[in-house]
Amino acid sequence: MSWQKTVTLSRRSKGCHLVTDEIQREIKDGLKKTKIGILHLFCQHTSCALSINENFDSDVRRDMDMALDRIVPESLPWRHTDEGPDDSVSHTKSSIIGVSLTIPITNGQLNLGTWQGIYLTEFRNASHSRRVVATIM
Fold first, then answer.
1. Most distant CA pair in the chain, distance
2. What predicted TM-score, i.e. pTM, was given to this entire model?
3. Which residue, among 136, 90, 95, 129, has the nearest Cα to 8 in the 3D structure?
4. Cα(77)–Cα(6) distance, rounded to whole angstroms?
5. What is the distance between the terminal CA atoms of the chain, rounded to a whole angstrom?
6. CB neighbours of 107 closer than 8 A, spacing ≥ 6?
């Protein structure tokens, strides 16, 4: 049986943020009913992204943010800057990283690797709360 909930993540400013615990808290009712399944996460925004990466060393999150800034710098001559200089650069990074994840569920638990965690990669300088649709099948 399918289960779905829209989760509103806490406000965060630019950076790569570990949100595994926040997501798991919000979907515990759906997880406990699922012996074997799939969690699909879909972020309803175009200036942030979802990723899976190392969950232990916070330097990885800072390094990832630094690398993305070098790959897609704010200093390019962006045309779409209606919401500020981080507008189009944020949309571009979101397209590169992606707004959805698929994670296996085994015995009511996310079947992530030992060092894996769910990241919200926020590309806007100002803090935003973000909505993520969590669907369990």
1. 50
2. 0.96
3. 129
4. 36
5. 7
6. 35, 36
